[in-house]
Amino acid sequence: MVQLLFEDIFILQRINPDGKKFDKVSRIEARSEQFDMYMQLDINTEIYPMRVGEKFTMVLAPTLNLDGTPDTGFYLPTNRKSLADKFEYVMHGKLYKISEDSSSGQTAKVEIYASFGGLLMMLKGDPSNASNFELDQRLFLLVRKV
């Protein structure tokens, strides 16, 4: 069984808060229901359009193999079932930065940054939700609308 690094249901709050920069990509801002995590994520909206107010499940996983075997880094097309079969939008990338943000004056929050071929993600929230993450870790981001 795949051990997921993170899973939660998010509500999309804003699209392109700083204005539209690219034709086919939008930056979304969303907040999770269970862990109260804040996320900014670049999405290719030409192939996966999203609207404000939509709910979606977002999962971060180290592999797509259902038995949990590590990802080899090579794509081999097979008829084997994978975690991706349960989702509508999948990206592969690398976690490049983990930092703490204590500027709000309240409890410290952790910020997790990942790049998926130039499409960026920032996940911010309670440090206890970041215990499974490591710097330079390869990961898959999977999204499915609820």
Write a brief caption for the model.
The protein is mainly β and 146 residues long. It is built from no helices and 8 strands. The relative contact order is 0.25.
Textual characterization of the structure:
The chain has 146 residues and is an all-beta fold. Helix content is 0%, strand content 47%. The chain has no helices and eight strands. It has strands at 6-15, 25-32, 38-44, 55-61, 89-101, 109-116, 119-125, 138-145. An eight-stranded antiparallel beta barrel has the order 1-2-3-7-6-5-8-4. It starts with 5 loop residues before the first strand and ends with a strand. The mean pLDDT is 92.
Provide key terms for this protein.
146 residues; globular
Structural class of the secondary structure composition?
A: mainly beta
End-to-end separation in angstroms reads 23 Å
What would the principal axes of the Cα set say about the shape? globular
Mean pLDDT: 92
Computed CA radius of gyration, to the nearest angstrom: 15 Å
What is the helix content? under 10%
Uncertain segments? none
Major sheet attributes: 8 strands, antiparallel, barrel
Number of helices: 0
Q: Report strand order across the widest sheet.
A: 1-2-3-7-6-5-8-4
Strand content: over 45%
